From TrEMBL:
The keyword Glycosyltransferase does not apply. Its EC number is 2.3.1.-. It comes from the Bacteria. This is Acyltransferase. It is an enzyme of class 2 (transferase). Keywords: Acyltransferase, Repeat, Transferase. GO terms for molecular function: acyltransferase activity. PROSITE patterns: HEXAPEP_TRANSFERASES (PS00101). It comes from Mucilaginibacter sabulilitoris. Pfam families: Hexapep. The keyword Acyltransferase applies. The lineage of its organism: Bacteria, Pseudomonadati, Bacteroidota, Sphingobacteriia, Sphingobacteriales.
Length: 194
């Protein structure tokens, strides 16, 4: 019943926020959406999400947050699975096909605040010079839980990001990175099953 209830309420929220989505998604829990009328959010086929403390039993549970500010483009490809994530998009966040993103991961394509203390501390706060750059996650990437991905990052095809990492530079295809800050660990070897 929870899955059916989640699906109905989420469809309604998607519709009210102008989200382009496929009805084959599976959702446990209700996401939080804030899609500006001049922003966009597109979801591919077979999207799966777990949102909230009763549907994400991995610790530090939160609802999924999907935010696209004015001019922001939030794009999720086919067969993507996420748990209790926050995608905050002021420019562009693009997630490819067959991507898995672990619990409590946050992806920000903006600094939110000016790095100039005079702007940041003015009242009301001035947003002059606040920088935003696209975040691109290519097909097959796997992002471990509790990871932070910052603006301007590209994560390559089939790359793996270890849990708890802070990623502020791009990761090439087929590599494993981890740490704070995230650093190269090894190549991502493909293991054949017998």
């Amino acid at each position: 019943m929870a899955r059916i209830y989640s699906w109905i309420i989420t469809c309604f929220k998607f519709y009210l926020n102008g989200v382009k989505f496929h009805a084959d998604f599976i959702g446990f829990g209700i996401p939080i959406l804030d899609i500006n009328m001049q922003g966009s959010f597109t979801i591919g086929k077979r999207f799966r999400f777990n949102s909230g403390k009763y549907h994400a039993m991995g610790g530090r549970q939160q609802q999924c947050y999907f935010v696209a500010a004015k001019g922001g483009q939030l794009i999720i490809g086919d067969n993507v699975g996420v748990t209790s994530i926050a995608l905050i998009c002021h420019n562009k966040i693009s997630i490819g096909n067959n991507v898995k993103i672990g619990i409590n991961t946050v992806i920000y394509d903006t600094d939110f605040h000016s790095l100039d203390a005079r702007m940041r501390n003015s009242y009301p706060e001035r947003l002059d010079g606040v920088k935003s750059k696209p975040v691109i996650i290519h097909d097959g990437a796997f992002i471990g839980g509790h990871t932070t991905i910052l603006k301007g990052v590209t994560i390559g095809k089939n790359a793996i990001v270890g849990a708890g990492s802070v990623v502020f530079e791009s990761i090439p295809d087929e590599q494993v990175w981890a740490g704070n800050p995230a650093r190269y660990i090894r190549d991502n070897y493909v293991y054949e099953t017998a």
